[in-house]
Amino acid sequence: MADPSTYRPAPGSIPTDPGVYKFRDDSNRVIYVGKAKNLRSRLSSYFQDLTQLHPRTRQMVLTASQVEWTVVASEVEALQLEYTWIKRFDPYFNVKYRDDKSYPMLAVSVGEQVPRAFFYRGPRRKGVRYFGPYSHAWAVRETLDLLLRVFPMRTCSKGVYNRHQSLGRPCLLGYIGKCDAPCVGRVSVTEHREIVNGLVSFMNGRTNEVIRDLTTKMEQAAEDLDFEKAARLRDDLGAVQKIMEQQAVVFGDGTDADLIAFHTDELEAAVQIFHVRDGRIRGQRGWVVEKIGDEDPALPGLLQDFLVQFYSDAAQRQAQEAAEDAKVLAESVTRRGVDQESHIQAKQVQPVPREILVQAMPAEAHDVAQILSALRGSQVDLRVPQRGDKRALLDTVARNAKDQLRQHKLKRVGDLTARSAALQDIQEALGMEDAPLRIECTDISHIQGTDVVASLVVFEDGLPRKADYRRYRVKEAAGDGRSDDVGSIAEITRRRFKRHSQDKLALPDEEAEAATFADEKVEESSSEAARKFAYPPQLFIVDGGAPQVKAAQAVFDELGIVDVTLVGLAKRLEEIWVPGDDEPVILPRNSQALFLLQQIRDEAHRFAISYHRQQRSKRMRSSVLDSVPGLGPQRRTDLVKHFGSVKKLREASVEEIAQVKGFGPKLAETVYQALLKK
Question: CA 543, CA 555: separation in Å to the nearest integer?
């Protein structure tokens, strides 16, 4: 680890102009690239007190051994140069928007002499056209199966193709009409290429030409009384229409737009993008990336980085594919003349749509819009939809991003190897004698100190044990209805561990278990409910920082608990606070231990929030009926259960209220009049 003071630039030597900077390590490798409106101000922030830096930023400046910069003329140039350097150097500490999984795609090897269509996952390769991505592998295979009815091109591998070429007979697909069998000369290479061009044209969105051609051929076959051919063409037309129906129409005005949404937590961010072309959803992609601390971790900063990286990459890919297409189709252009050449030029797809719809405007939105417009060659409308269909679809994209991040975290914790590694890492980081096989976590939920509740969740072997979950109403808030987090943490800790010693004694030994199984009529113990907590946790987590941990430790001292490790998990930087330590424990940002602790804390938060909402709803419901004379707790409950909600009760007539069990006409009239006045 290098000392940042050893390579800190001399005071006043850094210009105040906009520019781009690079941090390098001892091996002269670029480990981070950043941009700044004011280089001096930005770079100076890296050389402050290390304890004030974000953990990832601190790791970066300690890894680096030198810093250098380049001055540019404007902030737009800084954005462009930053992207160029990130692509060139692939720095370790920069966010890279790489797919969290390899999406299935339909690929066409246009670079081969006899192209083939096939299912594909993985990085893009030269000489191959890709269509998608699709959400599921079966969607690719179903689409390809339907396409082969209309465009019977080769789908076999090179080995299969060469084998049947030497045998002189086609494969099964050739016999059933789903391949034109160029391997045996049923069609020429040129004719096969025309079929391939038709499929590529169709997948690029020119569906009207295919439908019109099939319809014309079907009608002509019917006029010629060739009904077998007409029926086959009818089925082909149905297959094409089915492919088109799979792409749902979301905007009736033929909108070309990309909708982008993020969902973030303290460690990571998930991004989802829906591609809408001609009013139809043509594709969907997603990424999960680790957030960095030295750049803007909020939504505007993340959006800015994503927009520049994603669309610059798309423009580069489009240029490469255009060059490949021009080379592959050169012979066809020469043969067919100017009309075909014009068709090829029209086939190029814009890498940037006319509209880009986002949740919030990115940082330096004007500069980003300039770059996107330059990539497109015309004005790009970058905006936040406020209402209507576009807003509704953007909300759907946001829900997809939220679910993507949740699934990403569950995948990490659900893996047995990852769970074992996480528990081992926790043991080492906290200096525990054994791995914490049982972990409990508590969280407080309230609104400005009212309706204070708490949750207690239990994880065993890294997995939630929901049968042992507990929820509490904070008693200290009963008087004035208000409480503070520190006092609430102390109360819940005390209530959880008040019978800690007795619970341990309640554990059945082997003899007791044998007696229990031998006795056919053993009655359930009155403390059976408490036995679920007879196994004390090895690790107890409170949601919060040093004050909350101090309050919980005071309870531990009061109750004489010394066999449970206590920590606090702060939300802001995911710091782990240990009782008596002035400095928190910082786990690596990509460690399995941190992901497990975060999931436990998030589960406690979710459980507390759901209980808080339930209690608040119950209090609000009760407050409406509390003042009704002659209406006790049981009848209030019966009323709400019968109608489902207070809102529906307000809409009920006197006769409908009187039908509730235990309600006569007089009481029903009293309730009806009371609700009218409120």
Answer: 16
